[in-house]
Amino acid sequence: MKGANRPTHEDVLALVAELVPDIPRPSEIIAKIEAGDRTLWLEGWCDGCIAGRGFPPKGQGMLKEKLDYIREVTPGFLQQRAADRDMTVEWSGFIPLNDKKHLYGVSWAVFTKKPKNGQTAAV
């Protein structure tokens, strides 16, 4: 694809984020795509994910504060998800989604398997 219609990196990620279901159940708003030694990890954020943090329900204010909080915790949160799978975070970020009923957005990361002892990671 060439020219002005070529999607940006962010455009592609926003499309991929559509794989995460727009439901209010934190344990079910995850999607992943595995390819070789890498995994694209997508995890949504809903009210249940930020419960107990002093925020009102979705649609009742403090949207900027909620998104700022999610952006702040995303790197450490994704590092823990990767470590739980014996992987490391190669790239990561957060995509806010304005058109969803339950989701505030999706944290995303590319996880890479940790090299085994004595091996080097593929570049």
Description:
The chain is an alpha+beta fold. The chain has one domain. Helix content is about 25%, strand content about 25%. The chain contains two helices and four strands; from the N terminus they run αββαββ. The chain has helices at about 10-15, 65-85, and strands at about 30-35, 40-45, 85-95, 105-115. The chain has a four-stranded antiparallel β-sheet with strand order 1-2-4-3, with helices on both faces. The radius of gyration is 16 Å and the shape is globular.
Concise synopsis of the structure shown:
The protein is of the alpha+beta class and 123 residues long. The protein is built from two helices and four strands, in the order αββαββ.
Order of helices and strands: HEEHEE
- The Cα radius of gyration reads 16 Å
What is the mean pLDDT? 91
* Range of helix content: 25-40%
The overall number of domains is 1
Unreliable stretches: none
Indicate the proportion of strand residues.
25-35%
